[in-house]
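Look at one record.

>
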Amino acid sequence: MYHYIDSGLKNVWLASGYALRMTPDGKSVAIYDLDGLGVAICLALTKKPAPLTGEELRYIRNTGLMQLRAGLAKLLGNNEPAVVRWEKSGKVPRWADKLVRLLYLTHVDGKASIASVVERIDVIDRPEMQKIVLKRARSGWVSSIELQTYGTVVRYDNPPDPVAEDDCETTG
């Protein structure tokens, strides 16, 4: 698996959908369908049953909603310094967390029913550790979330539709 830190998130791992290559400058990685990966990460973040961290809020704001801090603040009926504070401190108010998830889910899929979105975000709890694993599939990227709470690991999967094994390769 490849630890995908280019997103600015520490908990994103790619199980497939990339190739490692040697170049004259050293190792490099090629990500297949980078735009689709951004959408998949944002969807995984909105579906995770734990509160958003400041970094995750920033990722959804930048990549998913394509908003500046001032723009998100206006959408939330708040001010830019508040958004800066949430992103830097990691303490996102519960109402802002839920509203950002709702905004993104309706942005990416205007057909999502409000009831299903509210049901999904109503189970937010804080686990000890979380890991988002993404796998390239025929239909795009699919995600799973591994949560470790009080020593127990729980895995939430989207139905996998894996592509051929050579979609993740190491080349020299």
Remarks:
- The CA atoms of residues 14 and 94 lie 29 Å apart.
